[in-house]
Amino acid sequence: MVLFSPLELDSITVENRIVKSATAESMADDDGFVTEKFVEFYKRLAEGGAGVAITGHMFVMDDGKAHRKMTGISRDEHVSSLKKMIEEVKKVNKTQILVAQISHAGRQGPFNPVAPSPIPDPVMKVTPRELTKEEIEEIIDSFGDAARRAEKAGFDAVQLHAAHGYLLSEFISPHTNRRKDEYGKERAKILLDIKERIDEKTRIPVLIKMNANDFIPGGLEIDEAMRIAKLLEKAGFEAIEVSGGMFESAHHTGYNVVCQNVSKSGEGYFKEFTKKIKEAVSIPVIAVGGIRSKAFAERLIKEGYADMVSMARPLIRDPYLPIRWMRNEIEASDCKSCNLCLRSVSMKELGCYSD
Ligand SMILES: Cc1cc2nc3c(=O)[nH]c(=O)nc-3n(C[C@H](O)[C@H](O)[C@H](O)COP(=O)(O)O)c2cc1C
Ligand code: SF4
Q1: Smallest Cα–Cα separation from 26: which of 355, 354, 353?
Q2: Which residues line ligand 2 (CB under 6 A)?
Q3: How many angstroms separate the alpha carbon of residue 168 from the centre of ligand 1?
Q4: Tens of pLDDT along 255-302?
Q5: How far apart are CA 152 and CA 128, in angstroms?
Q6: Alpha helices in the chain (DSSP H)
Q7: Is the pLDDT of residue 103 over 90?
Q8: Distance 256 CA to ligand 2 centre (A)
Q9: Do the domain assignments include residue 355?
Q10: 153 near 88, Cβ under 8 Å?
């Protein structure tokens, strides 16, 4: 099966095509230091056999935190507990690629809502403060430093979180970025500047998760996402995970666009966007959103929609799903798309809260 075949990225080899998508763990203490529960969670995922495991978003600056109990990578002190976690996880599965997702919450952060432009967020009920050029420079540097810490801790790669309406997603969206300076004229500039800064400070491979569509009138759409994807490839990003939606999207659509109900939307609800991004670039493209069965996952790769498949809720439900697929023990995830896990972020530790 192509699902269990290896894949060469530019500088890393992935053992199989299954990715555990980023999922906020809410397993850190108040200062962002990971706890023993976080280590146990990633050990189970390592046993479960996904080729790649991406952490939940980690804050690169203290005031860019999205919620309580979020993991931090904003200070050098964060490195030692992350390093210990990676050592433990690698003992369980030394070939699994461990990726740190690095992020700034932007206008969706409760602590200091900032954004490229002061566009009100009807869901967060906030009008963010517009960032100055000096602050943008500081943020670029923070991403560089976060990547340096990730490399020091032993992560195999980092993934920039430019999806779901957080700060980097706000920069590439024409809805939330109305700037007249160079960060508005080329809305992807911040991503390219961050990549350059990371390359100055590290040798760590850089992946990205980006929206292909914001599901907001005047927001990012697929043609523009394809143009940006080409710039990212040229800048040396090694893989693109394709998602969609912001917090604000629910205000326009009436449903959670990122975490849709698969019984209503069908499997792989972003697959047509993913295919378009794949047409635009030759680096590996990762599909995410509603992938639930082995046959469907295999088909996405075989039919050229994506090179890898990424799952979040199915692996919260059962971290051993990849190995069960490999052993033909099960055909599909029994995740009910109830989103109780999502609603618990910041209140309870990550887990499946359905029966
Ligand atoms: C509890 C929970 C936490 C999440 N945290 C993150 C996150 O930190 N970063 C991110 O990019 N996506 C996050 N997501 C979105 C998932 O990575 C994924 O894009 C989405 O759940 C759709 O995939 P699925 O149908 O396989 O769950 C989260 C989703 C859930 C359910
Ligand atoms: S809480 Fe619901 S959506 Fe989340 S993993 Fe469990 S069944 Fe799936």
Answers
A1: 353
A2: 313, 316-317, 335-341, 352-354
A3: 16
A4: 999 999 999 999 999 999 999 999 999 999 999 999 999 999 999 999
A5: 33
A6: 36-48, 78-92, 133-153, 167-172, 182-185, 189-201, 222-235, 249-253, 262-265, 271-280, 294-302, 313-317, 321-326, 340-343
A7: yes
A8: 14
A9: no
A10: no
The span from the CA of 157 to the CA of 325, in Å, is 26
Give the type of residue at 149: R
Q: What is the pTM of this model?
A: 0.98
User: Which residue, judged by its Cα, is nearest atom 5 of ligand 1?
Assistant: 23
- The CATH number of the domain holding residue 221 is 3.20.20.70
Q: How far apart are CA 353 and CA 348, in angstroms?
A: 10
Sign of the CA dihedral 15, 16, 19, 20?
Answer: negative
Which of 18, 20, 21 has most ligand 1 atoms within 8 Å of CB, for mutation? 21
Mapped onto helix, strand or coil, the DSSP state of residue 286 is strand
Residue of 42, 166, 183, 305 with catalytic role: 166
Q: Which pLDDT does position 346 carry in this prediction? A: 84
Q: How far is the CA of 354 from the centre of ligand 2 (A)?
A: 6
Assess if residue 352 is contained within a domain.
no
Query: For 206-220, what is each residue's pLDDT tens digit?
Result: 999 999 999 999 999
pLDDT in tens, 219-253: 999 999 999 999 999 999 999 999 999 999 999 99
Q: Are strands 206-213 and 240-244 parallel, antiparallel or unpaired?
A: parallel
Is residue 159 in some structural domain? Answer: yes
pLDDT at 355 over 90: no
d(CA 152, CA 84): 11
Task: Give residue for tokens 């706890």.
Answer: 35
Calculate the alpha carbon distances from 33 to 47, 188, 201, 265 in Å. Answer: 23, 31, 23, 37
How far is Cα 342 from Cα 23, in angstroms, rounded to an integer? 9
Q: What's the domain count of the chain?
A: 1
Distance CA 348, CA 268 (A): 28
Residue 350 inside a domain? The answer is: no
Residue 236: domain span: 2-343
CA distance 310 to 290: 9
